[in-house]
Records
---
Amino acid sequence: MQPIAGLTPVAYPQGIQLQVTQTMHVPVPGAPTPLVGLGDRATPHNGLTAPKAPGLMQFSDWELDKPGCCVKMGLACRGSTWDDSRSYLYIRDNSSLEINDTNGIKNCFTCCCEVQDNIFVYYFDRDPYAPNCKLGPFPWCCCCYTGIPKLEVVDMGIMCCCMKCDPCCLGKRVVLMPFETLPPPCCCCSNRTTQCDNCFNLCGSPVGNPKIFVWFAPQPKDANRFVKAAQTAMLGGVHGASRSNVGSPPGSAVMER
């Protein structure tokens, strides 16, 4: 039998002659579709803005926490309702956060209008997450201190007569603590609550909570797990490469840039 033109015969030890056809690449369902072009940028990226892989970006997608009574009342005063269909919270592989908070203060009257996106991207080598040198508050403006921001979990309970209670049922919340030690003139004091601050657990915040912090929004459902993954990314590591240590949510995915 004559070999067909364009096909390469392959000889096996048994003497059987097979005809091998050209390989066809069949797209796998669910796999990312290759981009037609990866762009023409030749200018080097500054800092963490460069993607880890050309044309692709890995990220972990975190479930958002449901609103409490206070949040619902605030939305009602603005003529809005809670919407998490477009809200999201990503930790990206180039050590950055991407947030879409559709329930922020900017969104009003969403009960009769379309919900607007409110997107922010924070790179961990820039404010407010990067360590930097800052001036002390007035009148100690001539004094400098180094702030090392970090994401922390705050216990929203209150100590009362050596018992912890949570009247608003807020549980644990993610916050950004700008520094571990207070700025001048209190540069010898910790930014965490001690037993002296809450009268030895008689009244005040639980021990270990930050005293000065910035609220984080939107809130993840699993605050502890999210903070562990975010702290790993803030240290410069790729969270996807250390999932065995910090855990990875089921929503981990790859998106095209």
---
Amino acid sequence: MKKINILYNIITFIVIITAASCRKDPVVGGTKVQTLAGEWWVQVDDGDGTGFSSKYYAITTYNTAANNDSLFVDDGDAIWGVKGKVLGHPGSLTFAAANTADYYSDGGIATFSITNGQVVKNGAIAPGSGDKTDAISFTLTFDSSLQGGQNVIKAKGYRRTGWPQDDH
């Protein structure tokens, strides 16, 4: 009887190991707006019509929990204090928003709008490494009592490469 129990346990162990090894790895998909999402280094227009500032600012774009066509644009509350949902169009690599709520509203901005939001695949050369990377550009409009009324800011930049020489 003891030999039968040992044999039964060995067979059970082999069946369990075999069944467990047959599982396939799950297919991990992306998000609906993954082509628009990323970390970016952007320059802003200097406001006097002479071009863009030499300083770069970090912003991020990322999907919402709903995983639909909404996309967050977030400056980390470090530039303008702007974080809000915009509508992304992954097929055309564009994004826009009209009077969207600002999640960092303590900066005096209740709503903001984004127009001409565009991502261009391999449309930029990173200044440090010289690698090709995606380009981003958009126009941000907001009213702020703390920042002098209505502001229209043009921004352009490139996707963060991960190389230290491209970080600012």
